[in-house]
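Team,

Forwarding the record for the chain on the shared tracking sheet. I've put the sequence and predicted structure together so nobody has to dig through attachments.
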Amino acid sequence: MPGQFTGISGATENKLAVDANGAITTVAGGPAGGKFYVYAVGDVPGVVAANNFLSVFNPGASGKAVVFYGASIVPWAGGAATVTVSMRTFRTTAASAGTLIAAANVGKFVTTDANASAEVRIGNPTVTTTGLELISVPPAITSAGAGVGAQTSTAPPGGAGFVCTPGQGVVFSTTSGDVDQLWNFQIIWAEI
């Protein structure tokens, strides 16, 4: 349905204009004609060894820019957990292996939009990082049977986005962990 929609996030006002075809045409200074996508995965157990939990990669032949608008990481524990290694997010220049999520299984803000071009991988994908760390989230640490760490959400300044051109992406990873530590992820991006 065509129209404008306004949402308040803190002190920032976000406006979306939707045309007769359901396409988003403006987003608070964001990309005209951008298509928005979301992927979430929950209750992912920690791994004792190094592990790449989630990768979002813009393939070299996509012809699009992937603009990240938000990420949420929630650590929690299902049992006593004492490993103090944070979940870290890095830029990547390659991603393969792991489990490739079918493009049809990546959420769309407008259900009639085309499937996402970005490749989403879970299950310890193989990545090449640039070494540039973007986000670091501490794990849930507890000597009790269970506990919750602080949720960490990140978003670029209003009207801005973190851009990955073709051949770039991001990965959420740890260098070690504890099987009693669990992680929930949600990431939102636009493709233009």
